[in-house]
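1st attempt posting a full record on here, be nice pls
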Amino acid sequence: MSVIYGEERKAQILEYVNRHSRASVQELTSSFGVSESTIRRDLQELEDAKLLRRTHGGAVSLQSVTFEPTFGEKEEAYRKEKEAIARKAVSFIEEGDTILLDSGTTTFFIVKELKAFTRLTVVTNSVMFAQELQNQPGIELLLAGGSLRKETLALVGPLTEQALQMVRVDKAFIATNGLDLEEGLTTPNLVEAATKKQMIKIAKEVILVTDHSKLGKVAFAKVAELADIDRCIIDNNAPLSTIRELERSGIDVHVVQPEEE
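the predicted structure (as tokens):
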């Protein structure tokens, strides 16, 4: 019975944190009548399951519209799905293309697939992507400078947008924090959202790359409507009903199968 009680308690803790956006260990100890060590263990298990994020002295909800994990945390989440999405994404790239890579962990896996190309122009706002591609002889690199967001390692803001306005690209690969059938694409930061909007404006074809965990999520700042997206690459854990709705919105959806462990 104790195991069942523990699972019920964790479910109630998660509901409490989501309802209040955040909670301290002291709050939870008082609310659930258990020791601090029990609460800390429950929070650790909930974080391990990627249901919330522990902080010093408590936890915050992953459902908060302004919360954003670090690049490193996001890189490891749904890694197999992102690798499969990246492999499909490069199949749409041709030698001689000019492509734009939005900063994001899914697009970072695309970067890793580009080294086989012998003639490619890559525009990006990611310092990490530039470092990854700097020694590739077949790739001409344009880094759109601006203010560095440490959470995403992206260059954003008016200077980035101004640089992007000066170019046009064949294909833009865009990442997102939230993909909702009503709200479209969203991200937690207003400045980063404005930069992403400019990226979409300069592309002949806009390709959204996202794993299924972003579906139904709505973050703070609006990036684009579904109508702004030409193609979407997503993993096969996405509900079929959602895929059909995306297709009805005029998006060419490609579903990929992650490799087994």
